[in-house]
Amino acid sequence: MLIDILTLFPDMFTGFLAGSLLGAARQRGLVDVRLFDIRDFAEGPHRQVDDRPFGGGPGMLLMPGPIVSCLEHVQAQASPPGSVILLTPGGRRLDQEGVENLAARERLLLVCGRYEGFDARVSQAVGAEEVSIGDYVLSGGEVAAMVVVDAVARLIPGVLGDEESARHDSFSGPGRLVEGPQYTRPRDFRGLHVPEVLLSGDHRRIEAWRQEQALAATRRRSAATPTPGAARRSQP
Ligand code: 6GU
Fold first, then answer.
1. Tens digit of each residue's pLDDT (9 = 90 or more) over 20-50
2. Cα of 173 from ligand 1 centre, angstroms
């Protein structure tokens, strides 16, 4: 899989890309990540990339020109054309199903926003999808892009050492349940004991117990998680 990242702050990605799982996957040729600096496509002596919003209002917007020029340059670097994903808090909220959908693509172009966001014509001009990683505001799309790359990369065949482990992840199996509690040594930690069933060696009982725990953990989580903003009915 090829992932191109368009950003005003490429340096933010260096430690992340060298990191263990992703670094190894890149070395083994399973995923290629390339960085492009949007400012390289800005014009004028000041290489301006942002400007004040028409109609007034606070902050600055990313101008469409540099981003679209950068996208056209990057698309021409490889084939097939990649899916353009704009990272913005107003985008479609990412979940594991969305990650699986992205992981099935051959090529992704992730565009990181900064300031108050993108000029709306970027999306229109290039036919982009807009993605958010949750209902809160980050100072830029870079951290969100790292979240997307991390979550997508671990679904690429061969990236995880053990292919089974992704299938057992929270949100992955039938019903998309979260995982129940897990335990390792010691059996007794400050008087807290590992549940007896896990020491029984009875794999059917263990599997049934884990399923029950996953259901209970999923219900507890639903009860503790408020309905996301967009679905809320109350008026402002
Ligand atoms: Cl993708 N970008 C920014 N700036 N804030 C966010 C986000 C993205 N997702 C959630 N909050």
1. 899 999 999 999 999 999 999 999 999 999 9
2. 27
The H-or-E segment that residue 50 falls in is strand 50-51
Using CA atoms, how far residue 8 sits from 13, 15, 84, 128, 193, in Å, is 11, 16, 17, 19, 51
113 CB under 6 A from ligand 1? yes
Domain ranges of the chain: 2-153, 177-224
Q: How much is the pTM?
A: 0.94
How wide is the angle at C-alpha 170 spanned by C-alphas 223 and 147, nearest 5°? 100
> Hey, whose CA ends up nearest to atom 6 of ligand 1?
89
Ligand 1 atom having least distance to the Cα of 138:
5
**Any idea which of 19-33, 45-59, 121-135, 156-170 has the lowest mean pLDDT?**
156-170
Tell me, rounded to whole angstroms, the distance of Cα 35 from its chain centroid.
16
**The CATH number of domain 2-153 is 3.40.1280.10:** yes
Enter the CATH code of domain 177-224: 1.10.1270.20
Active site residue 89: yes
- Give strand pairing partners of 34: 4
